[in-house]
Fold:
Amino acid sequence: MDGVTVPADDPHALRGLASDDPGSASMWKGPASKRIITGYGFWIFILSDIIMFSALFASYAVLIGATAGGPSGRQLFDLRNVVIETALLLASSFSCGLATIAADSRNATWFQVAMAVTCGFGLGFLALEANEFAGLIGRGAGPTRSAFLSAFFTLVGCHGLHVSAGILWLLTMMAQVYAKGFRADIQRRILCFALFWHALDIIWIAVFTIVYLLGSAA
Amino acid sequence: MSTSDQEFGIDVAPGDGPAERGGVAQRIGFYLAGLGLAVLLTATSFFVAGTDLVWQPSIPVALVVLAIAQMGVHLVFFLHLTTGPDNTNNVLALAFGVLIVMLVMGGSLWIMANLNHNMMPMDQMMQMQR
Structure:
């Protein structure tokens, strides 16, 4: 074991590809493991998703003053609601991290508990957002009122759709772990789900800063 | 351990940082540290947005800086991005993504600001067409 160090605790056998033969002395350790390739591919998808969001952010920023005589963000946004939504998403990101740890430790009970908690926080977020949208439409500030509101509903609604898709995925993962256990392919899906869920939280940082905080200051 | 092994070490999947190799308590502590920092930055953002204590024109800049800092916290503590050699691919992909995001957002704002500046107000345009 000259040129290779294998950490004692290596949950995904990431270093398992390194040659045990000290005589081979080659730098080439074979192709990367499937977990790395899957994770990297999904990472590329997430980055392209963020680029799509950047276009929506750009259109919101350009149209922020185009209220067509209608209400502006300062009159519409309720920051207390946004604080609660942010807290829910942050907490769900944390419990998603706990679910990842439980999956790596192959502890099905804690995995299901942490995923259920994550799901609860996500559903709470969606309920608050749906309530906010319904309130805005009820006050005549729907997406058809002005270009500003069209951009607002498109951007925030697109994030909400991503959260909804994430919750469906989350429930699927709970069912798959229940039915199939922590197989290697299930572990890869859990990795991708965790990446997706944490990325949604990063996009929400941009949403509450650009849309709500800067929007209600403008 | 030879240098070549350090330079060409096996990559790590995004989301699987070096923190993945610690004990369970250590890993939970890592997530807790991230959560604490994120809560702190979020609270500061919402406080700064509504305060009269600071010079008003500085508030948007402060909000953007706080948001970028919090994204960094999430990338490090939740997505386990590091500067280590096993993370080079992940960081380079992220850097390219950030470049495109900057081009799309900065370019749109720049072009539209110029366009609004150079465009004749709509009512004058209507009068000219009569």
